[in-house]
Design goal:
Blueprint (H helix, E strand, L loop, with lengths): L1 H28 L9 H4 L1 H6 L7 H27 L4 H24 L7 H33 L3 H8 L12
Helix pairs in contact: 1-4, 1-6, 4-5, 5-6
C-alpha cells in the first residue's frame, strides 16, 4: 500500500513540476514574436496571473522574467524530488518550495489583491495543497522507514528475513 502511495505522489509532483515548467516557458516567450505595442494584450503574466493590476510595458517584462525564473526554479526542484523521492532532504526542500508558492498565491490574492480569486488562483492553490499533503505523507513514511531500519542489526539481515526460501531443495543431477 505504501509503495503505491509513493508512486502516486511521485507522479503528482512530476505533474506539478510540468505545470511550473510550462508557466516558465509561457512567461519567457509571451512577448517574443509580437509587436511591442501588443505585448500587454497577450502577456501571460498580465492576462492569466496578475489580472487585477495594470502593468506597464517595462514592468510586465520584469515581472514576466521574475515569474518565469521562479517557476523554472520550482520546476527543477520538484522534478528532482519526483525522481529522487527517497532523499529526505530533497523532499523537505520541495515542501519549502510548495509552502513558498502557497504563500505567494495567498498573499497576492488576499493581501495585495493582484490575482483574481477565480480559476487562476484556485487551481494553483488546490494543486499546491494536494502536493504538500502528499509530500508530508512521504516525509512521515521516510521517517518511519528510517526508524525501523535503525532498530535492526543490518540491512542484509532485514533482507534475508524478508526473503522466502523453499523448505525442501532438490539436488540437481548433472
Amino acid at each position: 500500500m505504501s509503495l503505491s502511495l509513493v508512486y502516486a505522489v511521485r507522479g503528482f509532483i512530476a505533474f506539478i513540476a510540468f505545470i511550473e515548467f510550462v508557466n516558465a516557458l509561457r512567461s519567457f516567450t509571451s512577448g517574443w514574436f509580437v509587436e511591442p505595442e501588443d505585448v500587454l494584450k497577450i502577456s501571460f503574466v498580465q492576462t492569466k496571473i496578475f489580472t487585477q493590476v495594470e502593468l506597464s510595458k517595462e514592468s510586465e517584462v520584469i515581472v514576466s522574467q521574475l515569474f518565469g525564473l521562479y517557476s523554472f526554479l520550482n520546476s527543477s526542484i520538484l522534478i528532482a524530488t519526483a525522481i529522487f523521492v527517497h532523499y529526505k532532504a530533497l523532499v523537505g526542500l520541495s515542501v519549502v518550495v510548495l509552502l513558498l508558492k502557497l504563500f505567494f498565491y495567498v498573499s497576492q490574492g488576499f493581501i495585495y489583491k493582484t490575482i483574481s480569486l477565480a480559476a487562476s488562483f484556485q487551481v494553483p492553490v488546490l494543486f499546491t495543497l494536494c502536493g504538500l499533503g502528499g509530500l508530508i505523507c512521504i516525509l512521515c513514511m521516510l521517517e518511519s522507514d528510517f526508524r525501523s531500519y535503525s532498530n535492526s542489526s543490518s540491512e542484509n539481515d532485514d533482507l534475508l528475513k524478508q526473503m522466502k526460501f523453499p523448505k525442501s531443495r532438490k539436488s540437481k543431477n548433472l
